[in-house]
UniProtKB/TrEMBL annotation:
Enzyme Commission number: 5.6.2.3
Similarity comment: family membership: Belongs to the helicase family. DinG subfamily.
Catalysis: reaction(s): ATP + H2O = ADP + phosphate + H(+)
Domain Helicase ATP-binding span(s) in chain numbering: 13-301
Molecular function via GO: 5'-3' DNA helicase activity; ATP binding; hydrolase activity, acting on acid anhydrides, in phosphorus-containing anhydrides; nucleic acid binding
Hydrolase recorded as keyword: yes
Keywords: ATP-binding, Helicase, Hydrolase, Nucleotide-binding
Organism: Marmoricola endophyticus
Protein name: ATP-dependent helicase DinG
Top-level taxonomy: Bacteria, Bacillati, Actinomycetota, Actinomycetes, Propionibacteriales
Xref: Pfam families: DEAD (PF00270), Helicase_C_2 (PF13307)
Length: 658
């Protein structure tokens, strides 16, 4: 708690001045609302458009709070921005005003930190033996691992944090050679390097900090799954909150594959005297046959063969875990093998139960990657979020896209807040066991979307079909890109569509540079896109969110079709059916909201500064012809809208001419 009694307004003004910025009305309104929410324990949803400065809008009241506040982000990129730039700059700018320098810490999942035991003792192979430095694979992977090991020792001797973000350049396979998951960890009390452990040191810093920065997944594991990961806190600010439901769902999703069962059996074999490891391997073969006999997709009722196989795996995994030494001590191989067996048991038990609260499906995968496997996810997460997060904590959720169809109701319902609990100044709602009051606030945006952007819907095109892009769509794309002279970000519903569009533009407009996702790492593609304005970048979902390319680089955002979930998506289709069985509109509640959110995120790639100008072109006529089109358009920034292709090509031509 600051030594001086200061107001949020005073500290915010000092921060803005210290950072060389200008006061933004939306930022001031947001800071005041967050302060009120933290003091009254009323939940808050804040839509803050790009350029509002929402980080300061919640960081300032969080630092002034009497309680520990957790800030959770969806992406490591935003987490890195907060910890490496925003928070230190804020404290530098306001330390004199505050009268002290509040403490903060970053907390990530264990696998994001290097493991000294793995680096110094080696990595277990499939037979359970430890691989030392002399046994590392040759080539670039071996070189990456050796460089990582040297870096880890430098971090250990130099009081570093051992975080992956600070490591030398490497791939996922190399990082797995120097890190462990929570199930592989020996535990600080048993590990010979527990007193030096980077992950434990991060937890200690978090226990001493007033502000803890983490991610959605860790928040979900801590609050919803009930596994203690974060020091006790009273309030949480969820940034990028439009991602929260998906991240909570992801954290509660389990997978079961035959190769995983085989690896667990091999690694446990040397730690048990009986046949338990072989029994698990045999159960895995029975499961393989059952999966092969089950069609890919959602499994509404367990077929007897699959149900029996899951019970066999469950019982074999339980027997194997029981046969392992009760105290594995400092034996990393034994501890990890026991952890895998226990996790296999829990997953197989969950799948075999066939609970109505879960959705089970067979996911397709190539044989050379292990073949088809099973997945299970919660049918909904709003119930657990309400009971285990919203009931106990004060939650502030913020994003540039929280209003779908023009209001907050859809997002509020998806996280466990009821529409009838929404508060107002005229009718405040008291918080109790049955009521969790919340408010929605849209602080607007500093951008004048009506003047800066055009929403063009290609009404004359045929509705998109199952066969991907047709000749009419490819012609439209080429004409728009030609008018923009490059400067195009193409957002497509599938990799096949993105590649087809890229090939079509290359054939028709060879003088432009056209890049497609998958041809290089995303960071490299983004850099190439920024370097040359006469460039197009076409890709799928990872480009729809988070890509920040202000200026002349991007003056045209192409969206090939409304991004509804696939009809055969197991989880989305199950959720849609559940809404319909409860008497609701499953399409609007699930599919339309999913599409509205992605459309808003995609359209948001266009205007990133007050000087940006451009066009969002949607090649799906249903955005203006279908009944649900108005709902989707109400979720987008308020751009000037047209269906006239000639008007749009002229506008793009004027922008390209500068």
């Amino acid at each position: 708690m600051p030594a001086k009694t200061v107001s949020v307004t005073e500290v915010l003004a000092a921060a803005v001045a210290g950072l060389g910025g200008q006061e933004r009305p939306g930022q001031v309104a947001m800071a005041a609302a967050v302060e009120q929410a933290l003091s009254t324990r009323e939940h808050l949803l804040v839509q803050a458009g790009t350029g509002t400065g929402k980080s300061l809008g919640y960081l300032v009241p969080a630092l002034l709070s009497k309680d520990r506040v957790v800030v959770a982000t969806a992406t490591l990129a935003l987490q890195h921005q907060l910890v490496e730039r925003d928070i230190p700059a804020l404290l530098d700018a306001t330390e004199q005003t505050l009268g002290e320098r509040p403490s903060y810490a970053v907390l990530k999942g264990r696998s994001n930190y290097a493991c000294l035991h793995r680096v110094r003792e080696g990595v277990p192979d499939d037979q359970g033996a430890l691989l030392g430095a002399e046994q590392l694979p040759s080539g670039s992977l071996g070189a990456e691992v050796l460089a990582l090991r040297e870096w880890v020792e430098e971090e250990a001797t130099g009081d570093g944090t051992g975080e992956r973000d600070h490591a030398p350049r490497h791939g996922d396979r190399a990082w797995r050679q120097v890190s462990v998951s929570h199930r592989e960890c020996l535990g600080a009390s048993k590990c010979p390097f527990g007193t030096e452990c980077f992950a434990e040191a991060a937890k200690e810093r978090a226990y001493a900090a007033q502000l803890v920065v983490t991610n959605h997944s860790l928040l979900a594991i801590d609050a919803v799954e009930g596994i203690p990961m974060i020091p006790e806190y009273d309030a949480v600010v969820v940034d990028e909150a439009h991602e929260l439901v998906a991240r909570v769902t992801q954290a509660a999703t389990d997978e079961l594959s035959v190769p995983e069962i085989e690896r667990a059996s091999r690694r446990a074999g040397r730690h048990v005297e009986g046949d338990e490891a072989e029994d698990l391997a045999d159960a895995g073969e029975v499961l393989r046959e059952a999966i092969d006999e089950t069609p890919p997709g959602r499994v509404d009722r367990l077929p007897p063969q699959l149900g029996d196989a899951l019970v066999l795996v469950r019982d074999a995994a339980r027997a194997l875990a029981s046969a392992m030494p009760r105290d594995t001590g400092e034996d990393a191989g034994a501890a990890q093998a026991k952890g895998w067996a226990q996790e296999l048991f829990a997953t197989a038990e969950r799948m075999a139960a066939g609970a109505d609260a879960d959705v089970l499906w067979v996911a397709e995968r190539d044989r050379n990657r292990g073949g088809n496997h099973l997945c299970v996810a919660p049918l909904q997460v709003w119930g657990p979020m309400r009971d285990k997060l919203l009931y106990d904590k004060t939650v502030v959720m913020t994003s540039a896209t929280l209003k779908l169809g023009g209001d907050f109701d859809s997002v509020a319902s998806s996280v466990g807040l009821r529409v009838d609990e929404r508060s107002s100044d005229d009718a405040p709602i008291e918080r109790d066991a049955s009521h969790l009051p919340w408010r929605g606030l849209d602080v607007g945006s500093p951008f004048d979307y009506a003047k800066q952007g055009i929403l063009y819907v290609a009404k004359h095109l045929p509705p998109p079909g199952r066969d991907g892009l047709g000749a009419a769509q490819l012609d439209e794309i080429a004409e728009l890109v030609d008018a923009a002279d490059g400067r195009t970000l193409g957002l497509f519903s599938s990799r096949r569509a993105a590649e087809a569009a890229a090939e079509g533009v290359r054939e028709r407009l060879p003088h432009l540079t056209t890049l497609a996702q998958g041809e290089a790492q995303l960071a490299e593609l983004s850099a190439l896109f920024v370097e040359d304005p006469h460039t197009c970048l076409f890709g799928t979902l990872s480009l729809w969110q988070g890509l920040d390319v202000p200026g002349d680089t991007c003056q045209l955002v192409l969206i090939d079709r409304i991004p509804f979930p696939r009809p055969d998506d197991p989880l989305m289709s199950a959720r849609q059916r559940a809404v319909e069985q409860a008497g609701g509109n499953g399409f609007m509640t699930v599919a339309a909201n999913h599409a509205a959110l992605l459309l808003a995120q995609g359209a948001g790639r266009l205007i990133r500064t007050t000087s940006d100008r451009g066009v969002v072109a949607v090649l799906d006529p249903r955005l203006v012809t279908a009944r649900y089109g108005a709902y989707l358009r109400a979720s987008l920034p308020p751009m000037w809208t047209t269906t006239d292709p000639a008007v749009v090509r002229q506008a793009l031509g004027r922008l390209a001419a500068g």
